[in-house]
Each structure stands twice: as structure tokens, then as C-alpha cells.
Amino acid sequence: MCRAHLIRSLAGLAAVLTAALAPARADDPAAAVADVRVVPRPNQWSLVDPAQRGVLRELAALPVAQRDRLLRSDDARLRGIGIFIVEQQGDVAALLSLSRLLSDDAATVPCAAPVAHVGEYRTQEQTVADYLTGVYLEWFGVDVDNSRQRFDDLLGPMIDRPGELVQPWIVRLRRAKTDERATKTIKEQIGALPEQVRWAVVTLGYSESLYAKADARALLAALSDQTLQTVRARDKLLPHEPLFRASSSFRDAVLGQYEHLMSD
Amino acid sequence: MRNTCKLALSVALLAAGRGALADMDEDGGGQRATLEELAFCLAGPELPVSPLCEAALDSDGDLDVDLLDAAAFQLGYSGPSPWGACCFDDFSCLYLTAAGCQAAGGGGEWLGADTECSQCVSAAIQSVAYGGTGSRTVRIDCPNPPCSSYGSPQWLDANYDGDVEDPGDRNYPVAYVRDTDVALSSVKFYVTPGGLYASGIPVRGFGPDGLVFEGSGELSGNFLTVPGTLTSSLPLPNTVRYYAGFAVDWEVAFDGVTYYPAGTSSSRMYVTYAAPLGDRLESYFHIGTAAADGQSDQQDLIDAVWAEFADREVYNAHGQRLAYYRDVLCAAQCTYYTASTLVYYTTSQCGGWADLMIQCLRTQGVSGALFITIEPQSYPTLPLDCGSPPASAMGFIVNNYNYLLTYPPPCLSYPYLLNDPCGYYSAWPQPTCIDALGIPGQDNPNPASWFARHFIVKINLKYYDPSYGAGPFTGTLQEANLAWEQGAISGYFGIAQTSPTRLGVRKDVPELRETYFNQ
């Protein structure tokens, strides 16, 4: 009747049994993730059964070596959980190194289904590639559609310059929204970005209400005349930024937002 | 030489005279001789003829039987035309009398009076497969992707009856990216009579928008098969296009010269803005392409697709109208949350509607549409309820609700008494927050309205609520959030009483943003 089903996949149950029969070793990542039944859709934690939220949050602290073992696992469920951990750790370089998994069509740990009604949490089947596509959309703003070719076209040119990607800064700010200190640190880092990246991050940040209007205007007004002219000319800005390469209308929208912000 | 001359004159007569014969029928003129006799006697100007011919047909008395005599003959003729198609072995054809056909040689077969040359050998299109670099797979709507693809050939008249309506026939939709060539393969015609063999027979098809397909085929038995592919003379238009029927009118020239109609293949064709992304279900193609027909600008395309949702009248590829919570007021009774379940079962929660808009845009090759979650804000924006322990609001109710004053309320922070439509919580004997006719949703004037959360779409910094056809909401996230909330939210609910557990509601404060968009 519906692809979503109540939590309890056989794979998850098997993992629980495995964990119960063989005492977990501290360095065994499979044991560490044995209780995971679901992963959230990016930035949609409220869809996850509250009983799972604590389990998932603890995973973000998993050491990189163990995380990477999960990503290399033969078990697709563990590979999916590995993606979740990379995503939670905000390790952009590691995310960009996972493009090989875009052709991984094995079913992995399900994601939380978008249920609107009260008091129920359901899950939705997904493949490793489906999940990674969603994570890339969250972190880089582009739809790679389970395609390594699209990844190479859109994100490939930025692999060596992950700090100059626009969207990861927005995700970091969004996730740090309730943490003043972290927000301040991130904004300081944004302030040190090359101007042609900074204007886009600040403009998008303002659009997402992550910057106050006055702060955003002040930051944009501080750009060099050359950068301002380039922005206003709508030309030659961030030629490899996947957000703009993937969508001409998005680029127009961001430029329109910039002009609106600076207009009065 | 004489025969050739006679033949030429006969054909010329046919060209000049068939209309005249019709006139004669109306006039009801008398009959002096048969056309066969005329064909036999017809020689030409100043050529001697037999006395019998002269007597019967030399109407102008110039001692011959020529075209002038033939024309005069026709003026008085009212019987059935003894002319008909004379089919030769080389697939050529002339309109002759039976005798003329026999006299012409070349294996001529006379088909009978008033027959047409197109009847010598008739062909009817039997199969067409669509391909080429711009072609994209269309998948059959199913609730749980990946769904099956439509097979090839996409157009097939399996029983050669001239239509594609019968069991075994195929009339599948096809999809292309705009400004690309259409390449047709498996082009095959059913030919009667059978038993004929020839090669290099010219074939052509005329499609919409000036697209022409030309090639040649091999005739064997009852089939004329065109090997390889026929590539369109022009690319498809450089816009999104929806062809309810991409009709190709086919013609075949069995004699290599004269083309005769050979049927029409007509397939539903979706021409997309860019290479499709995602599951590519037929209904995603259908909704987006039909809505954006003629668009070539990306934002115009998005606006056009949105307009299809905004009018709250959306149909799947099979013409079924899609609904938001059809026939249920308790949201939990609708367990469809995805676009694929929505187009298949024709109803869904808001998650399915948000997903459908995203998938329709992805199918047009437009990426970057985001799935947005909306929930009530937590304490302290909204007060704690009266549960044990107190908690933030559990959800919201969507317009419209009527409120009655009650004093003293059992819970000051959530003072209005609500009975939830699912019966999850104990009912108040006299509720004071009453569900009224709602703001309409898709194909539903009064959809479910008691929710933990809601899902909408964001693209190009604007927010769209496809479940209600509301938006776009613009400005910053907070500005758009407040505008959405002011149009949708009636109030927030929480626990008002713990034993038994009952719900209370507080009204939305219009000037305050009490919900949040997750991005």
C-alpha cells in the first residue's frame, strides 16, 4: 500500500541480534551503529522517532577511521550510516570524495518519511545513491541525480577548493543558528573568503535570515569596487560554483536578491 | 507507337474528363457508345480510323477520333466509369479501361471501374520506435520506484487493423529534450497484397512543426521494413512542447515516384526543457510538460509549472484529478507521502504534493527545488502546554476554525478545547475550537487540518505550498514564513488536561512568526 513502513527493517533487526550475540568492541564501527534504524532526511530531524535521535546524535562523534571503515564496508546499510556520519560531521572534503557511491544502488538504512500527522514516525526505503544524492543537495545545493557524471560536471571542478563552495557555508550557519559562539566563528571565516565567494554566501545567508539586513548590507558594501561591478554586471562570477552552473534561474534569483538588498 | 499514343490520350482524357463525367451524371445525358469503345477507337488527330469508329465517335466530322471527339463523347456519357487503376509489375499505375490496361502490357492488372492507383499496393504503418540522443525513457506510474519503463517500439498496430486500440497494440508515450532530433527505427508497414518483393522503396513521414522523416524500405511478403533509423529533417522546437499526439503522416512510393498515404502513427510526446532528472514517471512528464508548453526560459518554466498547482486542478497522465487528503479529515488515514504514490493513488498528504512539484521540475531537468518542513516553534516563542511534564506545542491547525469563549479555561496557555479528528485524545464534552470549512486544498474544499507539521517547496529563494496552491512566498526566509503562516495557520495545539488527556488550542498571533521553515 505504501512504500513507507514502520521502523524495524530486517537488516536492522539482524544488526541488533548480531550486536547482542557478540559483545561490541570499542573499535568496531558496526557495533557502534547496531541500533541505528533510520537516518534523517537532511536537516529534518523532527521526522525521526525520538527514540532514535539520541542514537544518531552520538554517531557524529565516531572517529574518522571508524567512519571510513563504515564507508568501505561490504554492508550497504553500514555505508549509508557512514554517509550520515560524514554529513553530520560537516566534512565537506570527505563528502566530495564519496562520489563513487553515486552508482551504489544497494538498499541502505531507510530515511525518515515525511509524515504530517501527529504521533507517528515512519521510514522510507532508499539506496546508498539516493541518500548520497540527498546529502549532496543539502550540502552543495545541486541535484546530482545518482550520477557520477553529473557530479563530475558540477562538483568536479571544486574538489580541490571545497572552501570556496557557497552552499556549505549556508549549511554550517543554519546548523549553528542556536549557538552564538559557533555562528560568530563561522561568520568570521566567511569574512575571510575571497570576495567573489563572500558576496554570494552573504546574499544567500541574508535570504535565509542567517544575516540581519544591516549586517549583510555592511558586508556587501565592503566589497571592492571591482567585485561590486562584476556582481552588478552579472558576469563572470563564480564560474565553477555548482549552484550557478546547475541553474541559470537560481543565479538570477541570487543576483536579484543582492540587488534588492542593496537597493534602498 | 499507336498503342503508346492511345495510352497517352487515354490518360490525358482521364485527367481532363473525370470531372466532366460527373457532370454528365447530373445532366442525365444519353449514352452513344462505351468508354471501352472510345478507348479502342481513340487514335489522334488526322489518323485514320475504322468506319465503325468514325460513325460512332467522330462527332466533329473531321475523319478521325481525337481528343475533341473524346471530349464531345464525355458530354453525352452518364454510365459508370469503366476507367480504373491499371497496376503494373513495376508498381507504376495508370488509369485505363480494362482493355487499355490489357493492351498496355507490362503485366498490367486492372482493378476495376472507379478504382484508385493507391489500391494497387496499399501500405499501412505498423510499428514505430522512438530514439535518438535526445530521447529519454518514460516510466510507467507506479507507487514504489524504480518503476518499469515503457517498451519499444512505442507505437505498434499488432493486428494490422489500422489502429492501436487493441490488445497487443502499443501507444506508449515518448519523451525528448528540446532542440534535439527525433530518430525513428523499427519503421514497418503492413502491405497488401502480399507476396511482393522489392527494395529501395521510398518512404516518408510528415510530423508536426515541419519535421520530415525520409528513407527507403525493403518489401518482402506483407511487410515493408525500413532498416536503420529515420532522423528528422529538423530538430524539435527549442521550447518545452506537449504533443497530445505527435502525428506522423506516412507515405510510400512503391513505384519510386508517386507517394500514396500509408497511415498515421500518433504518440503522446513530451519535450522537456533539459535532460530529465529523477524517477521520470509518465505523470511527472505530463504535468510539467503540458503546463509549460512553449516555454524556453527556466524561470518562466517554473512559473508555468507552479501555475498548474496554483489552480488546484492537477491531473495525472491518465486524466485522474489528484487530491489533497481526499475524503479524510484525520491525516493519519491517508498514508501516502510521496509523489509516486500521489500520482498512482491520486491522493496524498502534503509531503506527496511537495514531492510532486519537485519531481515535475526535476523531470524538466530543473534542479535545486528543496523539500521544506514547517513546524510550530518551540518554547519560548510558543508557551509550554499543560502536559506532564509541560512541553512545546505539538502541532498546528490550518484554517478555518471557529473559537468560542470559555472561562476559566483548563489550560491558560492553550485555552480553547479541541477534539482531534483522529480520536487520539479524549474528547471534550463541549469543545470550543470547532473545525469549519477549510481553506481549499487540491481537489478538496475542506481537507484535513490537524497536523504535526507541513511540507512545502523552495526554489530560487521562493516558497511554494502546492497542497493548497498557495504562494509563492517571497522575501527572506522569515518574511516568507510569516506570510505563509498568516495565510494558513489558525492555531497551535498542546495538552490542556492530563487525566484524561485532552487537547487545547491557542490562536495564532498574526503579527508573530510562530512556525519555522527548516531552510
Could you provide a short overview of the structure?
The complex is a heterodimer of chains A (264) and B (519). Chain A has 264 residues and is mainly α.
Feature tags:
heterodimer, A: 264 residues, mainly alpha, 2 domains, three-stranded antiparallel β-sheet, B: 519 residues, alpha+beta, Coagulation Factor XIII, Chain A, domain 1, 3 domains, twelve-stranded mixed β-sheet, 29 strands, 29% strand, rod-shaped, disordered N terminus
Write the layout of secondary structure elements.
The complex is a heterodimer of chains A (264) and B (519).
Chain A: E1 5-6, H1 10-21, H2 29-32, H3 50-59, H4 64-71, H5 76-89, H6 92-96, E2 107-112, E3 122-127, H7 128-140, H8 148-154, H9 167-175, H10 180-191, H11 195-207, H12 213-221, H13 225-233, H14 242-246, H15 248-263
Antiparallel strand pairs in A: 1-3, 2-3
Chain B: H1 2-27, H2 35-41, H3 51-57, H4 67-75, E1 84-87, E2 93-96, H5 98-104, E3 109-110, E4 122-131, E5 135-136, E6 155-156, E7 170-171, E8 174-177, E9 183-192, E10 196-206, E11 212-221, E12 223-226, E13 230-231, E14 241-252, E15 260-272, H6 282-291, H7 298-310, E16 323-324, H8 339-345, E17 347-348, H9 350-363, E18 370-376, E19 395-398, E20 401-403, E21 416-418, E22 433-435, E23 450-451, E24 454-459, E25 462-465, E26 470-473, H10 477-488, E27 489-498, E28 501-507, E29 515-517
Parallel strand pairs in B: 8-15, 16-17
Antiparallel strand pairs in B: 1-2, 1-3, 4-6, 4-9, 5-8, 6-7, 9-12, 9-13, 10-11, 10-14, 11-12, 14-15, 18-24, 18-29, 19-23, 19-27, 20-22, 21-28, 24-25, 25-26, 27-28
Helix pairs in contact in B: 1-4, 6-7, 6-9, 8-9
Description:
The complex is a heterodimer of chains A (264) and B (519). Chain A is mainly alpha-helical and 264 residues long. Chain A has two domains: 5-155, no CATH class; 162-263, no CATH class. Chain A has helices at 10-21, 29-32, 50-59, 64-71, 76-89, 92-96, 128-140, 148-154, 167-175, 180-191, 195-207, 213-221, 225-233, 242-246, 248-263, and strands at residues 5-6, 107-112, 122-127. A three-stranded antiparallel β-sheet of chain A has the order 1-3-2. Residues 1-25 of chain A have low confidence and may be disordered. Chain B has three domains: 2-118, no CATH class; 121-272, Distorted Sandwich (Coagulation Factor XIII, Chain A, domain 1); 373-517, no CATH class. Helices cover 22% and strands 29% of the residues of chain B. In chain B, strands 4, 5, 6, 7, 8, 9, 10, 11, 12, 13, 14 and 15 form a twelve-stranded mixed β-sheet that branches. Chain B has a five-stranded antiparallel β-sheet with strand order 26-25-24-18-29, with helices on both faces. In chain B, strands 21-28-27-19-23 form a five-stranded antiparallel β-sheet. In chain B, a hairpin with a 2-residue loop joins strand 24 and strand 25 (462-465). In chain B, helix 1 packs parallel to helix 4 and helix 6 packs across helix 9 (350-363). The interface between A and B is large, with 40 and 52 residues.
